[in-house]
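Question: I have long wanted to understand how a fold can be written as tokens. Here is the record:
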Amino acid sequence: MSPPTALVLGATGGIGGAMAAKLAGRGYRVRALHRNASAMAARNPSIDWRQGDAMNRADVVRAADGVSLIVHAVNPPGYRDWARLVLPMIDNTIAAAKVAGARILMPGTVYNFGPETFPVLDEESPQRPVTVKGKIRVGLEERLEAAAAGGVPVIIVRAGDFFGPGAGNNWFAQGLVKPGAPLKAITLPGAPGVGHQWAYLPDVAETMMQLVEHADCLPSFARFHMEGVFDTDGLQLAEAIRRVVGKPTLPIRRFPWLFARLASPFVPLFREIMEMRYLWQQPLRMSNRRLVEVLGAEPHTPLDRAVAETLASLGCLPNRQPADGRLLAAAHG
């Protein structure tokens, strides 16, 4: 019997790269779509790279021929162009899944939820987003739910802010620490005492993989929350960083929200960051009860190890390499 084939959209990104490595390790043939497939094949020949663009439906349908799973992990870089790109890309993935008879697996976010649902979120919490990106995420999930009702099985795994090797643009790498050198300070986006939800990328990929392996027991539209790493007071991740680097008095600074607000009319990235500030102003925790009912336990890497692997991948621990070099290489594409 030939091994199953999975198409990963966004294989050069954080969760896409981690899922590509995870699928290959579980015996899948991994296929990926890229606008420069020949260059990617030279860099990572273990993946079957197909020429194309996730914005082009014919390309996605062609790449999905014969696959049993499509990992939809493609997102516009940074916070840009969501309104123009996100929904057309999911429509193309749904169309391809219908033709191929494939399941869709997608990472979700907390953007769907407004602050009135905090501090504890479960899968059925009301979705009343207060941002443009949140409304787009709600629309995206509504399209997937409709697709599931029409015969396309779907698994969504919502998690907190990603960190870890290859995680790409994220608050840990762009907010808490400065990559590329030993740390001189830690910057905290949230106020002390405000809990925040994080997710270690390898744990997210393992959770998604285990859910695929339990797919026969799931409803056609299956949605799960990960507990991940809940920073109870907004300082736990910072203290783990201090322990890992061996500097118990490493300075902790507040994120310059005032500067971001003043710069936001002129710098699109700051404008988008300001829109998401509400996620740092109130405690936010995700309940994984449904996930544990299916898997028995949520995959979890000890915090200090997760932080050490992340810092090593960012060049903040010059004398230490990440334990899983294969994962890091795959995550970078």
